[in-house]
Design brief:
This protein is α+β, with helices and mostly antiparallel strands. Helices cover about 40% and strands about 25% of the residues. It contains eleven helices and twelve strands. A hairpin with an 8-residue loop joins strand 10 and strand 11. The protein binds adenosine monophosphate (AMP) and zinc ion.
Length: about 300
């Protein structure tokens, strides 16, 4: 059996995750949620001194904002849109007939004004823009959200719905680059404390199609994305557990965000894949949290 499916089965068998019959869509146990909460608190312990403004959005966002963000240009294959039945009584009867006959019943579903959040920071940029020009010190936010990506997989670390904790910085290029450098260092320290093997490497996002190939190369050549990788499913293809993204002026331009001196703002974000870190911990320290290394237990539970 492949290591990926055996790890997923181990997580099911030990009651840490629950199957729903859909790859990448799982129920979480109390133990799993406790590990997530403890790790989330550890991130806060590392980032708390920066006094980021806490903002929490539901796991869905304004479709108009999503359209403007450019997500569909880069990642149409991952997007999740929310559709609803918008017909009348006649349409309802048709829907029920199709359902009973086992036929496609979705023909009358229409796109609503809501889409699923693809990354925790996407709903934030319009909020920043709405507040007007940035202060001279720029802005810093603390986010956490369930995110959706249509990438069904039996690798337990590749989910369709998962949580991302993020810090997002907006400001001058210098401010933003310094933020990312800080977190590259902190991220390594944090994962070291959890006694997980890791390395940091330059990376790219899964830009779609032929045009996407150029975007991937460009992102790598400019060192715009780094990932902290932990071997989880396999050692040949380690799993990105933390990401450090420098968007340059992409979101600043898209949303008209300005620095105090009137330039287009730059942004960066650091993202923590909460489920990925939790699964990495179960994979390396075992499915029984009581028998995790005492130093790791102390870091998480005090
Ligand atoms: P990204 O925006 O792709 O850099 O994602 C930010 C972080 O979210 C990554 O570093 C991962 O830890 C996590 N992540 C991304 N995709 C998934 C997924 N399909 N399942 C679970 N976690 C994910
Ligand atoms: Zn982000």
């Amino acid at each position: 059996m492949k290591e990926t499916t055996s790890l997923l089965n181990r997580l099911f068998d030990s009651g840490i995750l629950f199957s729903t019959g859909i790859d990448g869509l799982y129920g979480r146990s109390g133990v799993f949620e406790d590990v997530i909460a403890r790790f989330d608190a550890l991130v806060t312990a590392f980032g708390g001194e920066d006094k980021a403004e806490v903002v929490r959005f539901p796991p869905a966002m304004n479709r108009a904002h999503f359209e403007r963000s450019g997500y569909l240009k880069s990642f149409p294959q991952l997007a999740g849109t929310v559709h609803s039945f918008c017909g009348d009584d006649h349409g309802h009867a048709q829907l029920m007939e199709c359902l009973a006959a086992g036929e496609d019943w979705t023909g009358q579903q229409k796109a609503t004004d809501v889409v699923l959040t693809p990354a925790a920071c996407y709903p934030l940029y319009p909020l920043i823009a709405n507040r007007g020009v940035l202060k001279p010190e720029g802005a810093l936010f603390d986010l956490q959200s369930y995110c959706f990506r249509h990438e069904p997989s039996v690798e337990p670390t590749r989910m369709q719905l998962f949580r991302m904790r993020e810090y997002v910085r907006a400001g001058t290029p210098d401010q933003v680059v310094a933020f990312r450098a800080d977190w590259l260092e902190r991220g390594g320290k944090l994962i070291e404390m959890l006694e997980l093997p890791f390395h940091v490497d330059v990376a790219n996002d899964p830009f779609f199609g032929r045009a996407g190939r150029m975007m991937k190369n460009n992102q790598r050549d400019q060192g715009l994305k780094f990932e902290l990788l932990v071997p989880v499913n396999s050692t040949e293809a380690p799993t990105a557990c933390l990401s450090f993204n420098y968007h340059q002026d992409h979101f600043g331009r898209t949303w008209g965000i300005e620095t105090a001196d009137g330039a287009v703002a730059h942004t960066a974000c650091v993202g923590f894949g909460l489920e990925r870190v939790a699964i990495a911990l179960f994979r390396h320290h075992g499915t029984d949290v009581q028998s995790w290394p005492s130093a790791v237990r102390k870091v998480l539970w005090g």
